[in-house]
Design brief:
Number of domains: 1
Largest sheet: 8 strands, mixed
Strand content: 25-35%
Shape: globular
Order of helices and strands: HEEHHEEEEEHEEEEHHHEE
Helix content: 25-40%
Structural class: alpha+beta
Number of strands: 13
Distance between the termini: 58 Å
Length: about 300
């Protein structure tokens, strides 16, 4: 049973880092520092079905184990001459659903102190299935957004999900009220790599006949196909000054990553697959020069609005 749970966790973690998901997070900020967070999460339907089947099997195994333990307790009680008690009826785990409002409500606290779940709705398209969730907050300074999408993958029955295993990369905020008001957005710092680990970006990779490297690149391509991650901040009012690289009206994009564009650049994607970046910040460094990709390189973005 333990091996089954471990296997399930490994599969979930792999899903959390692959191209089966698309995540879009929009933080809307009002002049008083309150606002809402709109989170859209989509997963490829094929992976949803695989995940559902896996979760059902895990739930079945767990149910059988609980029943066996209950039978064993009754049997041991009889042997010891204890008064016979009725066997406790075990509740069946809820069936897996990618749109789980109970789970979304529980995750509200992870976004920051005082965050509450407002509403949610299920999304089904031809190729994807997921949800849109809306959270409210009273103080933007208490909000922290984990830009790593892994924690948003739904967890299975009685296993803490991938939250404890994924790298936390928090976006935080400092807010000063006024006319204009000032919002300071602090992005996760990019830790410098050791010189020996640097991947040359100014010249193409030399041809290689290494089957292992080629197989790794092919596998990475399959995993990241279709993956998209976007995070943006929108203020209610007019932006009078900002150092943000990507601004559209009152909206500032912190990142908009489309891994399909990276895959089309064969040489660059090969470097990416061989380097296997461990954080989203490292990933952003590989994608910053790709046409159509938006990556905010400033670690602090100031937005003055009124």
């Amino acid at each position: 049973m333990k091996k089954l749970l471990v296997l399930g966790l490994i599969v979930i973690l792999l899903l959390a880092l692959t191209g089966c998901i698309q995540v879009d997070t929009l933080i809307k900020v009002k002049p008083d520092g309150s606002g809402v967070i709109e989170e859209t999460f989509l997963m490829n339907k094929a992976f949803v079905q695989q995940m559902k089947a896996m979760m059902e099997e895990m739930a079945k195994q767990m149910q059988q184990q609980m029943e066996q333990q209950a039978d064993q307790q009754v049997t041991e009680g009889k042997k010891q001459g204890e008064p016979q008690q009725e066997k406790e009826v075990q509740e069946k785990p809820e069936p897996f659903d990618i749109f789980n409002e109970k789970e979304l409500k529980e995750k509200a606290g992870e976004l920051g102190e005082g965050v509450t779940y407002l509403s949610g709705s299920k999304i089904v398209t031809d190729d994807y299935e997921g949800y849109k969730a809306i959270y409210a907050f009273k103080d933007i300074e208490k909000i922290r957004i984990n830009q790593n999408p892994g924690e948003k993958v739904p967890s299975g029955p009685q296993q803490g999900g991938p939250d404890s295993k994924t790298k936390k990369e928090y976006i935080t905020f400092i807010y000063t009220k006024g006319k204009p008001a000032e919002l300071l957005i602090k992005l996760p710092a990019q830790k410098p790599k050791e010189k020996s680990e640097d991947v040359p970006e100014d010249k193409p990779s030399e041809p290689t006949d290494d089957p292992q490297a080629e197989a790794m690149t092919a596998q990475m391509k399959q995993l990241f196909e279709g993956m998209k991650i976007a995070v943006a901040v929108e203020v209610k009012g007019t932006i009078v000054k900002t150092n943000a690289t990507y601004r559209d009206g009152s909206k500032v994009t912190l990142m908009e990553l489309d891994f399909g564009k990276l895959i089309k650049m064969a040489d660059k994607f090969k470097k990416f697959s061989l380097a296997q970046p461990k954080t989203l910040e490292e990933t952003k460094q590989f994608m910053k020069d790709i046409p159509g990709i938006k990556v905010e390189l400033n670690e602090e973005i100031k937005i003055m609005f009124q």
